[in-house]
Amino acid sequence: MKIETIKTLGDLKKAGYQSKPIKDELRDNLIQKIKNKETAFEGVHGYENTVIPELERAILSRHNINLLGLRGQAKTRLARLMLNLLDEYIPYVKGSEINDDPFNPISRFATELISEQGDDTPIAWLHRSDRFAEKLATPDVTVADLIGDVDPIKAANLKLSYADDRVIHYGMIPRANRCIFVINELPDLQARIQVALFNILQEGDIQIRGFKLRLPLDVQFLFTANPEDYTNRGSIVTPLKDRIGSQILTHYPVDIETARLITEQEAKLVESQKATVIVPDLARDLLEQIVFEARESEYIDAKSGVSARLSITALENLLSTAERRALIAGDTTTMLRLSDFVGIIPAITGKVELVYEGEQEGAAVVAYNLIGEAVKSLFPEFFPKIEKLKKEDEETPYDDLVSWFFNQKDGFEILDDLRDKEYKNLLDAISPLDDLLGEYQPNINKAESYFVKEFVLWALVEFKQLSKYRFTEGIQFKDPYGSFISGL
């Protein structure tokens, strides 16, 4: 069907077009995608066996939907991806404010126009990209914003009394007729405004300023809500919850592989950055582990959640830190260093809500400690576990390395802005590190081995085998007991 040839209601009838409610439209197109083994929600990872099946069941049931989850769990993205389940174009009565279906007009404008012009009624076409309306719930939202009100200017211009329904100015929801309408952060909507949605959800009609309008609106509603909001700012009133067909719980990624996939997909990296900074796999895993540690941290409010945006912005900061270092040093390319992770602290401090104990520690200290905890968690996957206690005279794979630092009376420093060559020479000077990697990571890429070497040093600090001091220009590693013994 070539839509450019269909310009009137008569043309539409000849073409054999059949209109359908939006919920049936979504359902039919989803059924087709499932039959064709196509992905309905492209680019959403980690929900394949949890959220997406529930969402598809809700669409097949023709339900209005509430997506309930903590911040940064792709709730709004899922809502926007539902556009892909709409027909590419639908016809509407040209000039209609509320996208009247030519076969089932509901506004006075459309019914009168069709009554007057019949098959000559002009038709326009609405693309699916224009069939999405979104409103963030804020305390200043009014019933007039969402549903509509009497417009005195229109009444004056048309010389109509307030008793005439042509003086009505439609709100966002009627204007979203035959569209997907999303209300984000539903609990933030005042209770009296939520009550105004009852009739729309259940009976599908609206009332404006006492007018007896019977507008059976055809809208697919999606709501998003954060469980934290139920106690902090507001709540979804019970009768409204009762009218929402399906409530679907979202969640954070459950493994590092999925988290990495999301971060790499969403991070906005400049091509020149990607060319300049080489990022080892271990560094990407470590970045995601930091976020996992944050979600488990006793200093961070778990109810508030730790958004997936943390790892996305942290990756951007991480590459920018290494890029800046390379620019200062005059290096054309550089391998990411573990010490570059200090650059992600601003990305962490702005995205976590601290409990009282965390506030006492300080946001920057908590963020810095999360890096150490992530190193500690990943280390046993690559090297033998470091036991807290060991028997006297018992040898460990790390004895030679710790002894090397014991003999460095002035400590071992890695400056932040070292050139790559100097950085590598520094780490190559620690011969026990080469022995350790040779035994436990024999197949490691030479370029990436330097990141792993620094990773080992940080891990020894976390397991109390070495001490680490952060100063303005870099990091110093020392034997924790060497200075004490030498001072005797």
Q: How would you sum up the global shape? A: elongated
Q: Quaternary state, please?
A: single chain
Largest sheet, strands/sense/barrel: 5 strands, parallel
Distance between the termini: 92 Å
Secondary structure tally, helices = 24
Estimate what percentage of residues fall within beta strands.
5-15%
Instruction: Supply the helix-strand structural class.
Output: alpha/beta
Mean pLDDT: 88
Q: Runs with pLDDT <50, length 5+? A: 484-488
Kindly list the characteristics that best describe this protein.
488 residues; 12% strand; 3-stranded antiparallel sheet; 5-stranded parallel sheet
Description:
The chain is α/β, with parallel strands linked by helices and 488 residues long. It is built from 24 helices and 14 strands. Helix 13 (256-266) crosses helix 16 (309-329). The radius of gyration is 31 Å and the shape is elongated. Mean pLDDT is 88; it is low at 484-488.
Sequence-ordered SSE layout with sheet pairings:
Elements: H1 9-14, H2 22-35, H3 51-60, E1 65-68, H4 75-81, E2 89-93, H5 108-117, E3 123-127, E4 132-136, H6 143-146, E5 148-150, H7 152-158, E6 168-170, H8 172-175, E7 180-184, H9 191-195, H10 198-202, E8 220-225, H11 229-232, H12 238-243, E9 246-249, H13 256-266, H14 271-276, E10 277-278, H15 281-296, H16 309-329, E11 334-335, H17 345-349, H18 356-361, H19 363-378, H20 399-406, E12 412-415, H21 420-428, H22 431-440, H23 446-462, E13 467-471, E14 474-478, H24 482-486
